[in-house]
Amino acid sequence: MSSHLRKRSLILSGHDTSVALEPDFWDVLEEMADACQQPLPVLVARVDAERLPPRSLASALRVHALNWLRKQVNATTDDKAEPHSTKNI
Known about the structure:
Blueprint: E1 6-12, E2 15-21, H1 23-35, H2 40-50, H3 57-80
Antiparallel strand pairs: 1-2
């Protein structure tokens, strides 16, 4: 395993498994779990249940974290966007 990956052991569907991700991805996944007020293993189990079979769990977690961050950025961008003016000039 690469030294830049952090490995975590989890029990998913009653089976021991381990996932190795970059620390930044683990940080985002922990933020997601906190935002949803659920433990990290529950979030990982949900992603595992929803992933397509050929995709690895590590890949599914990375994509899930990326999509969550995209939503955060879009929400922030939408909040900062100026409303269109309806004044007639």
